[in-house]
Each structure stands twice: as C-alpha cells, then as structure tokens.
Design a protein that fits this description.
Elements: H1 2-16, H2 20-56, H3 60-65, H4 77-85, H5 88-119, H6 125-137, H7 144-154, H8 160-184, H9 189-196, H10 201-212, H11 214-230, H12 233-238, E1 255-256, E2 259-260, H13 262-293
Antiparallel strand pairs: 1-2
Helix pairs in contact: 2-13, 4-13, 5-8, 5-11, 6-8, 8-11, 9-10, 11-13
Length: 299
C-alpha cells in the first residue's frame, strides 16, 4: 500500500523538475530578441556619430559623390580648418561660461524650490506644481518676442549673463520637478534627528538633504548643461557680438553664398559633440542612477 503512494508523490516531483540545461536553453531563446533589439538600438545611436566622423574627413568631391560611404582620402586637415574658420576657441570659452553658469544657478534655484515642495508645508504647493507642469510643456518659442524687448530695455541683450538668465528660466521647472521627486525618496529619519538636535531648516537643507541629493543634483546639472550647450535659437537671437557667440552658433561660419561646405560643418559638429559625449560616458552611471531614483526614468 505504501509503494503506490510513494510513486504517486515522486512522479509530480520528477515532472516539475527542470534541468539546468533546459533552463539555459529557454533563457537563451528568450534572450535572442532582446539582443537583436539592443543591437539595433546601438546601431541607431552610434551610427550617426560614425557617419558624422566619416563626412568630417572627406573632401567635398567625396561628399558630393556619396554622403554615406567611406572617404577615399582622409582629410584630417578639415578639423583644423573648421576650428580656425569658425573661431571655435572663443566659442568653447563662451559655451563653458554659459553652461557652467546655467547649471550652477539652476541647481541652486531648483534645489531650494524642490526642498520647499517636498518637505515644507507650503501654502499653494499644488497650484505651484501645476504651474511648473504647465510651463514645462509650453514651447519656448512663444517667449522669444517679449523676452527680446524686455532684455533690450534691461540692458541684458547681447550679453552672456542675459542668456544664462533665460536658460535658467527655461530649465528650472523640469529641474525642480526632477529634484522634488528625488527628495521624496529620501528617508526623513535623519532630518528628524537633526531637528531634535536643534537644527533649523537651512541646516537640515544644507547638511542633510542636499548632500544626500547629490545624484539628483548631478543629473540636473548634466541635463541643464547639455541643453544649454546644444541650444541654438535663443543663443543666435540674443547674442550678436561674435566674441560672445557660443559653440552651437559656429555653423554660420561655413555659409558661402547660397552653399555650405558640409565637410567643414561635419568637422565642426564632431568637435562640438566630442566634449559632451566624453562627459556623458564618464558620468553615465551616476546620471542613470539619479534619473531612475527620481522616479522619472521609468524605474
């Protein structure tokens, strides 16, 4: 009587058992579409940069024959020609000033606003959040004309400070929302302990909250810095002095009548994207961690 019982209980165990080899085979089959999709995304991301580089070292004749093929002769002098013709030394200095100023002021403004919305009982906080969401969704071009007249009267037109103020106003709403979401994930125990020890709100902010929010602040600095570095419309509208023009406006230097030397444009574009590409690759882990921790990265 005990033998059938033992056999009946052992059979399901054998039926439910999955060998490691079959498990690896199943996971390998399931992973093939994933690898295909990731490979396509990698080609989609890296392909334009590689094509950009190939066009930067072509002659105009090679580019005219095919803008997608390999260069027949490698014209490395295009980089030096583009650098000299576009005065990219001044452009890099101006872009560095604008990017650092925009990122620093945006981090300060967004950090203070995010702390107030995440930790303090601010009257009208919900309405202010709605205002931030609305202003983040509005196209920046609608502010162009009123800002032009206001900046001309205020003496901020054709100055790097005026451009930095515009960028801070454009990027602060999104930065505030991102930092607020990040601060909501921070535990309140350290703040409560600091208040028990007699710390005020400013001490809690600068000694507890902001040091623990460094990944979020770094993400805000990278996002706003990249946006300010790549922005073109406001830069070319509010800066007319060639000595103050940022790097993103240097492409006008290659206009020759009704034609352009696209090999020099490609060389200048590759020089322009190289610093930000290196910076992002160096800080991508912290950037992704800060974005995912804020709840805005889909994690």
């Amino acid at each position: 009587m005990s033998t059938p019982t033992t056999a009946s209980t052992a059979a399901p165990g054998r039926a439910n058992h999955v060998s490691p080899r079959s498990r690896r085979t199943a996971s390998g089959r399931a992973g093939i579409p994933t690898y295909v999709v990731l490979t396509c995304l990698a080609i989609f991301s890296v392909g334009p940069i590689v094509l950009f580089f190939f066009n930067a070292v072509k002659t105009q004749q090679d580019y005219g024959r095919s803008s997608l093929g390999l260069p027949s002769t490698w014209q490395w002098g295009n980089f030096s020609a583009a650098w000299t013709q576009a005065n990219m030394t001044a452009g890099i200095v101006n872009s560095l000033i604008i990017v650092v100023g925009t990122a620093a002021v945006t981090c300060v403004v967004a950090g203070l606003a995010a702390y107030a919305l995440a930790r303090l009982q601010v009257r009208g906080g919900s309405a202010f959040m709605t205002l931030l969401l609305v202003t983040s969704s509005l196209p920046a071009q609608m502010f162009l004309v009123p800002l032009f007249y206001a900046w001309a009267k205020a003496g901020l037109y054709d100055t790097r400070l005026g451009l930095v103020i515009i960028y801070v106003g454009l990027f602060s709403p999104f930065a505030t929302l991102l930092l607020r979401s990040f601060m909501l994930t921070l535990p309140r125990e350290f703040e409560e302990a600091a208040r028990i020890d007699g710390a005020g709100e400013l001490s809690v902010l600068f000694r507890i909250v902001l040091p623990n929010s460094l990944p979020g602040l770094l993400t805000v600095a990278l996002v706003t810095g990249l946006s300010a570095y790549n922005e073109f419309l406001f830069a070319v509208t509010f800066i007319q002095n060639p000595d103050f023009l940022p790097l993103s406006t240097t492409f006008f230097s290659f206009q020759q009548g009704f034609s352009q030397d696209y090999t020099l444009v490609s060389a200048a574009g590759f020089i322009m994207i190289a610093p930000m590409l290196i910076l992002f690759l160096a800080l991508q882990r912290r950037f992704i961690d800060g974005l995912s921790s804020s709840g805005l990265g889909g994690a």
